[in-house]
Specification:
349 residues, 1 helix, Neuraminidase, 4-stranded antiparallel β-sheet, mainly beta, globular, 6-stranded mixed β-sheet
């Protein structure tokens, strides 16, 4: 989302598969409205995109979709390598002449020192450990591959940047792997020649994919997701999680921190746009996501869409609150969030 503070008003932008929305929330009045921004130049839109900001330019890339038929119609998923960028809120999307090293989706993104860092992800065959950076320079996108790879391939994980340190939680290393308790940490405040992923302690709860991460006041947060379990038929069942945790890093060595379990969530938010974004001084906000009601509705022809509820965790009082819902039909899943031009931007598919 894109968030601006002006006279106690908080403006947030949600960019989606084809449409970019502005979501305005008045902290004092509790009122909200949405405004549509330029559409991405694509007819289908993308799930699992990467997004970030470089030199005040918004970059969106990668992702996957079903270009011919929907999945319930037997359609084949396709992955993408195009790079889109937008240099003004009222501007037009441009397509870079550069492309990613491979079509990829379902990793995570952080923006740091004017680089958009893409971490992990997957394609139709495998998961990847690659970490690359995109930077907007002189009207074009430059690609750098001089970051250390993750210790293992990962996709469907969550992550966030906390005070210059990247935290990556959960996910799986192959398309058939259940999930990992992995918690990887990369301190970007060190000299680049000394960059090295460290493994931190796992959170005190189930392994998970498609969780939602968050960052607030030097603390890393982990919310919801799916726990996967092999069933008696050799298949995999997924269980929606409604738990939440915070990780307080050690100030000298971030991987030596400690986890604390938080109050359970009022509903699951698996695959919600992430990381969760900060509102005011105390709230981490999570819009949409997959909840129990969504998952019990299985007929594509009559499915109403994803949840439009918005919940927030108060990091000071340690409790959950419900906020104004999103407009009907605007909720998306497996999407990135990003801060852009003094506003907090959030993407959804």
């Amino acid at each position: 989302m894109f968030l601006t503070k002006k006279n106690m008003n908080y403006r947030k932008l949600f960019f989606t598969q084809l449409i970019v929305f502005v979501f305005c929330f008045s902290y004092a009045l509790g009122q909200s409205h949405w405004t549509e921004l330029p559409s991405l130049p694509d007819e289908e839109g993308f799930a699992g995109m990467y997004a970030g900001v470089s030199h005040n330019v918004l970059i969106c890339t990668g992702g996957a979709n079903f270009p011919d038929k929907k999945p319930w119609e037997g359609g084949a998923k396709q992955w993408y390598d195009q790079i889109y960028f937008l240099d003004a809120i009222n501007g037009a999307w441009k397509i870079s002449k550069e492309i990613l090293p491979r079509p990829i989706a379902y990793g995570i993104t952080v923006s740091f020192n004017d680089q958009v860092i893409l971490i992990g992800g997957s394609d139709s065959e495998k998961h990847y450990s690659d970490v690359i950076a995109l930077e907007y320079i002189n009207g074009e996108i430059q690609i750098s591959e001089d970051f250390p790879s993750l210790p293992v391939p990962l996709s469907n994980m969550s992550g966030a940047l906390v005070d210059g340190v990247i935290y990556v939680a959960g996910g799986n290393s192959t398309p058939t792997e259940i999930a990992r308790p992995s918690f990887y940490i990369l301190d970007l405040k060190a000299n680049k020649s000394e960059y090295k992923w460290q493994e931190g302690p796992s959170w005190p709860g189930p392994t998970r994919i498609q969780s939602v991460a968050g960052s607030h006041d030097g603390i890393f947060y982990l919310f919801s997701g799916f726990e996967l379990k092999t069933n008696g038929d050799g298949g995999v069942d997924r269980f929606l999680l409604e738990d939440a945790y915070r990780y307080k890093p050690d100030p000298v060595r971030p991987s030596n921190g400690a986890w604390t379990k938080l109050p359970d969530m009022p509903r699951g938010v698996a695959a919600a746009p992430g990381p969760a974004f900060t509102l005011g001084m105390a709230h981490l906000v999570i819009p949409g996501g997959l909840d129990r009601k969504t998952l019990t509705l299985t007929d594509p022809a009559t499915h109403p869409g994803f949840s439009e509820e918005v919940i927030a965790f108060n990091v000071r009082s340690n409790d959950w609150v419900t906020m104004d819902p999103m407009p009907v039909g605007s909720s998306r899943v497996t999407a990135p969030t990003v801060h852009w031009q003094d506003e907090v931007g959030r993407g959804e598919w």
